[in-house]
Design brief:
The complex is a heterodimer of chains A (358) and B (130).
Chain A: H1 8-13, E1 17-21, E2 24-29, H2 33-42, E3 44-48, E4 53-58, H3 62-67, E5 81-88, E6 94-104, E7 107-112, H4 117-127, E8 134-135, E9 141-146, H5 150-155, E10 170-175, E11 178-183, E12 192-197, H6 202-213, E13 218-220, H7 223-232, H8 267-276, E14 280-287, E15 298-301, E16 304-315, E17 320-328, E18 337-342, E19 345-352
Parallel strand pairs in A: 3-13
Antiparallel strand pairs in A: 1-2, 3-9, 4-7, 4-8, 5-6, 6-7, 9-12, 10-11, 11-12, 14-17, 14-19, 15-16, 15-18, 16-17, 18-19
Chain B: E1 9-10, E2 15-20, E3 23-28, H1 30-36, E4 39-43, E5 50-51, E6 56-62, E7 66-70, E8 75-80, H2 83-86, H3 90-93, E9 102-106, H4 118-128
Antiparallel strand pairs in B: 1-2, 2-3, 3-9, 4-6, 5-8, 6-7, 8-9
Classes of the chains: A alpha+beta (358), B alpha+beta (130).
């Protein structure tokens, strides 16, 4: 039996099509992937992302303990700032990609992928130098409201001055009568917020946001649109584009690795990889012939497999067939020709600058 | 669920077929396009290609899924709906009309009679809906 978020009944009442995602019964679409995608780009979309996990470090040494596990640097962040980071294994591969929230040096909350909740918690518990983490995943529901109209919609429901919350900053406050962590973050490439709230208040918050946004074009949006939106930005999806066997350097995420922060799990392996030079890189490409690239398709050269497509779709905003995949470093420069194997045939593509959507 | 037109024949793979003169026009059903979602790409066969009943002859893709098209009958492709190349979403908006996919010249016209009628297809859908 798939796990359910506190909003399961609400999704069904809205007529959502439900699918199993990482063991969760989640809405993949309501009105349609393309219309939901366009709502997020042009107005706003509301996502239930309560399946994501939250792991907390609390008490003296919380910051140092969390910081020793991730690639980005919480010491350099301010209180009220979030950082995107890699949680790595000893080989430098991703255990997960996470967002770590610094409330204070004594309180760090790490948001993790649904598929990795238990794995991450076990890994953190085993590898933390000091403060043991607490799995708070069942204490939070999470709604994401994303799009150019998101801020004005949320502002109608809260006294928090949202102008004071910059990108990747957060505050605690009350939205529609519900106590929330209000975080200016997201996974769509649009402005917007992720709201963490008590699970038993998620339905009130969801309904208030839908109601407040209705007149400006807010739509409930499912995992289908979430995937096309993030693909157009080349945001990595764990399990597709990054995993235990790929490092942040290979994934083009060198910017989340802070070499001057001191030791962290995976650092020696990353340093060795950097010194040796990268053999493969994650690139974005556009198809130059008809066809849509998909996760798992081969990237070929003269009949030989040289890489693999990790994500691909028809981008509703860019109106092109786009893909993400690992290729040998020599083939990773912008303009490099690629061949994607689609149903047994090599189809022409070209490495392009990302994000696809600008 | 929209009514399935009475003048069409249907397959278990959710294609429809309609006799039109000597040819048979083929598309996917309203149910098929609905469960597929927004169609963003249709891979068509070439005019003159031979197709075999029950075998794949093309592909329909939505933003999130790839779905093969299975020939309802055997024969030779005599027309393809090239308008779908630029406007694949016509498969969603008008699956039984402008969203047709190919026309086949049947090698055995009697094969059409072996397909499901509207009532039979309706029962199939009722059985698979849970």
């Amino acid at each position: 039996m798939a796990r359910q978020t506190p909003l399961n009944r609400v999704h069904r009442a809205l007529g959502a099509r439900m699918v199993d995602f990482a063991g969760w019964d989640m809405p993949v679409q309501y009105s349609g992937v393309v219309s939901e995608h366009e709502a997020v780009r042009n107005a706003a979309g509301l996502f239930d992302v309560s399946h994501m996990g939250e792991i907390e470090f609390r008490g003296e040494g919380a910051l140092e303990s969390a910081n020793a596990l991730i690639t980005n640097d919480l010491a350099r962040a301010s209180d009220g700032q979030a950082v995107y980071a890699g949680l790595l294994n000893h080989q430098g591969g991703f255990v997960d990609d996470v967002v770590a929230y610094r409330f204070s040096p004594e309180r760090i909350l790490v948001c993790v992928n649904a598929s990795n909740r238990e794995k991450d918690f076990a890994w953190m518990t085993e590898n933390t130098p000091r403060v043991k983490p607490v799995n708070r995943s069942d204490d939070y529901a999470q709604l994401a409201i994303q799009g150019p109209k998101a801020a004005s919609i949320v502002q109608r429901l809260t006294e928090l001055p949202l102008d004071s919350i910059a990108t990747y900053r957060f505050r605690e406050g009350v939205v529609a009568g519900v106590p929330c962590i209000v975080s200016r973050t997201g996974y769509t490439g649009e402005d917007g917020f992720e709201l963490y709230c008590p699970p038993d208040r998620a339905e009130d918050l969801w309904n208030a946001l839908l109601e407040a946004g209705r007149s400006v074009g807010l739509l409930p949006a499912g995992l289908g649109a979430r995937d096309t939106l993030r693909t157009e930005m080349k945001y990595a999806l764990y399990g597709n584009d990054i995993d235990d066997a790929h490092t942040p350097l290979e994934a083009g995420l060198g910017w989340i690795v802070k070499w001057d922060k001191g030791e962290f799990v995976g650092r020696p392996a990353l340093a060795a990889q950097k010194a040796a030079g990268l053999k493969r890189k994650l690139v974005g490409f556009e198809m130059r012939e008809p066809g849509i690239p998909r996760h798992g398709y081969g990237i070929v050269q003269a009949g030989e497999a040289v890489g693999e497509v990790t994500s691909g779709t028809q981008g509703p905003t860019v109106k092109k067939a786009i893909g993400i995949g690992y290729v040998p470093t020599a083939m990773s420069a912008e303009g490099s020709p690629l061949q994607i194997e689609i149903r047994g045939r090599p189809v022409r593509a070209e490495v392009v600058k990302t994000p696809f959507k600008r | 669920m929209a009514d399935n037109p009475k003048n069409l024949r249907y397959t278990k793979d959710h294609e429809w077929a309609r006799r039109e003169g000597p040819g048979v026009v083929v598309g996917i059903t309203a149910h098929a396009q609905e469960s597929l979602g927004d169609v963003v790409y249709v891979e068509l066969p070439k005019v003159g290609d031979t197709v075999t009943a029950g075998s794949p002859f093309g592909v329909v893709e939505s933003t999130k899924a790839v779905s093969e098209l299975f020939a309802p009958i055997s024969g030779k492709v005599s027309k393809v709906n090239t308008a779908l190349t630029d406007e694949p979403s016509t498969v969603n908006s008008d699956p039984y009309g402008a969203g047709w996919i190919v026309e086949i010249q049947p090698s055995d016209p009697a094969q059409l009679d072996g397909l499901l009628d509207a009532d039979g297809y309706g029962e199939l859908l009722a059985k698979t809906a849970t």
